[in-house]
Amino acid sequence: MHLNRATLIGYLGGDSEVRTGKNNQKFTTFSIATKTSYKDKESGEYVSHTEWHRCIVFGKFGEFAATLKKGAHVQVEGEIRHTEYTPKKAKKPVRTDSIRVNSILKLDRAEKAAAEEQEAEQDIPSEEVAE
Question: Which of 11, 48, 57, 121 could form a disulfide with 62 if both were Cys (CB 3.0 to 4.6 A apart)?
Answer without folding.
Answer: 57
